[in-house]
């Protein structure tokens, strides 16, 4: 550790997701205090926050001890795999299940409004497969590489189904989001809806799918939530070229989840754990333009890693701003 690296640094407008330490705590106050000790004034309350944890978190929000940048749908935690973060959600064929997904997103938006949050982060849906073909692909990627015959054969099979079915699910997701936004406007809620780039190749949206959905809903508060680590992962797997497409879709970005991917393992501290500059630099411009910037890191990231990563990231962003003029 460099001298002084573990000293708490005020992180300003940057926010920090509770996914980092939620498994270490049974009390909400202790969970938030640990994040505050890192120098963060705001948090993203992730989808594993329970009603029980909120009993001690909500008084902290009300007193102004902590701000809430965003909440992550479904919020608070719902113990139902049909509506978890890896499900068809807003794209369900079954109207009752789709309606339930719309209602759960409205519930998340109500909490966001209550807490003064700027956004609700949403995993909008996926193209359903009988098994987790993404996990199979990642195993082949690790074992043989993305150009291997084994990987390519399964990838082509996955893409054939994804390409055939994705337009129908994108359409239904857009319709569901339109319903949500109309109801939220009727209730006077103004939090943005950020549809997040995902970590499994059959999940929606790709960057282009996000642009299509946002374009269809122009005038509604639906935006892209760029997850940098997931975008890196999908580029490595071959779903899209994030670095090439960022310039085209940048105007749709409202928020970012900031983390780095090592191979196909995500939620690491940018620059620190990879030791590389070139992997993360292409995402700096997108981070700079995002209204809400949230670190989304795994428990293995130590406080000194987080402080160092923030120093390196903000230093590069300042250099980018200076170069621009």
TrEMBL record:
Gene3D superfamilies in alphabetical order? Divalent-metal-dependent TIM barrel enzymes
Residue intervals of the Xylose isomerase-like TIM barrel domain: 33-262
Q: Which UniProt keywords apply?
A: Isomerase
SUPFAM superfamilies, per this entry?
Xylose isomerase-like
UniProt entry tagged with the keyword Isomerase: yes
- Keyword Isomerase present in the record's keywords: the answer is yes
Molecular function terms, GO-annotated = isomerase activity
State the name under which the record lists this protein.
Xylose isomerase domain protein TIM barrel
Q: What organism is recorded for this protein?
A: Paenibacillus mucilaginosus (strain KNP414)
């Amino acid at each position: 550790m460099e001298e002084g690296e573990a000293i708490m640094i005020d992180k300003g407008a940057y926010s920090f997701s509770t996914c980092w330490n939620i498994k270490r705590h049974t009390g909400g106050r202790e969970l938030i205090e640990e994040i505050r000790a890192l120098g963060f004034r705001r948090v993203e309350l992730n989808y594993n926050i329970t009603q029980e944890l909120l009993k001690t978190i909500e008084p902290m929000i009300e007193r102004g001890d902590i701000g809430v940048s965003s909440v992550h749908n479904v919020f608070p935690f719902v113990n139902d795999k049909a509506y978890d973060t890896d499900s068809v959600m807003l794209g369900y064929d079954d109207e009752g299940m789709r309606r339930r997904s719309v209602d759960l997103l409205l519930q998340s938006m109500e909490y966001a409004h209550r807490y003064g949050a700027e956004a609700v982060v949403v995993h909008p849906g996926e193209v359903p497969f009988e098994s987790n073909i993404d996990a199979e692909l990642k195993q082949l990627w690790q074992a043989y590489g993305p150009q291997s015959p084994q990987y390519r054969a399964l990838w082509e099979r996955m893409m054939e189904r994804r390409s055939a079915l994705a337009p129908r699910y994108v359409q239904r997701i857009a319709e569901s989001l339109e319903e949500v936004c109309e109801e939220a406007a009727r209730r006077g809620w103004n939090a943005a809806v950020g549809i997040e780039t995902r970590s499994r190749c059959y999940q929606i949206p790709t960057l282009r799918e996000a642009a299509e959905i946002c374009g269809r809903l122009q005038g509604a508060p639906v935006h892209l939530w760029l997850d940098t680590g997931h975008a890196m992962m999908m580029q490595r797997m071959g779903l899209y070229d994030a670095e090439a497409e960022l310039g085209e879709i940048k105007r749709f970005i409202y928020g970012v989840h900031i983390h780095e991917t090592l191979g196909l393992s995500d939620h690491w501290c940018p620059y620190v754990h990879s030791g590389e500059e070139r992997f993360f630099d292409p995402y700096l411009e997108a981070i700079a333009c995002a209204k809400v910037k949230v670190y989304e890191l795994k428990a293995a990231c130590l406080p000194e890693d987080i402080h160092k990563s923030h120093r390196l990231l903000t230093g590069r962003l300042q250099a980018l701003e200076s170069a621009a003029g």
